[in-house]
Structure formats: C-alpha cells, structure tokens
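seq as requested:
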Amino acid sequence: MKRRTVLRAGAGLLAGGTVAAAPAADPTDGWTRTSFTHSWQKPWNLDLSDRHSYIGGVHRMWVYATDEPFEEGSSTDPRTEMRWKNDYSTGDHMWDADVYLPAGTDGASFVQTLRTRRPSGTPATDIMLNVYDTGGGTVRRYDGTVLKTNAYDTWFNVKIAHQASSGTGTIKVYLDDSLVLTVADRGPATRYFKNGVYHHGSGRAEARFRDITYWRR
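struct tokens:
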C-alpha cells in the first residue's frame, strides 16, 4: 500500500486504534445570515414597555391571561410578540434564537410560523412551539409531540428551518443543534415568523430571547 493511502486510511484513527467520530453538521451550514425587520404585537391598551424589556442583549416578554388582545375587539388570546416582516411563500428560511422559559409559564406559544395569506379553510399556522408546566417545563409541538422536558429556567437554542414551496414544504426543528422534529407544513401560503409569548393558559407567562437570527439558503 502506498504511504499516502496508509496516511489517508489512518486519518480517522485516534490513539489506541479507535475511529474518531466525525463532528456533527451545524444546522446552519450552507445558510446565509440575513437581516430582518419586525413590528410588535402587545395588549392594545398598554405601552410596549409594560410588557417588554431589552437589557444586556436579552428580549424579555411577558403577558397575563387577563390582558387585552393585540387589537381592540379581537377575540384572540393576549400576547407580546415580535412579528417578523420578512414574509415569504417559497424558499429556505430559518428562525434561530436562544430561548429562556421561566418556571410557571404554562400554555404559552413562544415561536410560530403564521400563515397570513392562505387558501380558505386551511390552518392559520404551520407550526407552534408551546411550553407547559409539567416535567420541569415541557416543550411541545402545539399540545402534542414532546420535544423537550426540563426546559424551565435554562437557556437552550431553538432553530426552525422551513423549506417552503408552492406545494407542501418541510419544517425541521432543532434544539441545541440536534434535529428533534421533521414535519410537513400545511400547504401553500404566505407566512412569517413570530416569537414572544402568546398566552393560552392562566396567570402570567414569560419568554426571553437572545441572539435572534434569520438565515436564508
């Protein structure tokens, strides 16, 4: 065997002859960091500062079950959310941020893709990630599939990668850069990302975000 072939064959060996594991691929490999803009949705009768703070690079958003909706006369639940203004219908788009969910936040959505223009009778969202007051803080897709337990009072990274098309696209969810969910979206639509706290439960709900990033491919 030629020396170059021997070196190449041995490049993956550690001392003792074991094979070195290849590093896991970063979910953002091949993606480009992209700027984004956003507006705010918060109880219509309050100032943003009543339900949001930005200190040390951390967006902190909270709301109470008794708060007003974001528009006077709306029948939706109370929220304090960043409404991304980078609407899209096709292409590859990724929402990325570190998330902190304080203990006691129960029945609140903290990130979602909302289908703003969609065929009549189709769902309003492609995906929502909710947190519930069980298992030390349980993150679920809607109120179903469990994606994480012991989520309270710790920072963890969330990425939602959406491969959107004129037909049915694909959504992948990564937690701390590990793929935890792959699902089909809900068909053609124009949609946008939202993050914050959209409260479907009782009492007070809060979510915090840092290093919020938009990726395109």
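The two ends are 42 Å apart (CA to CA).
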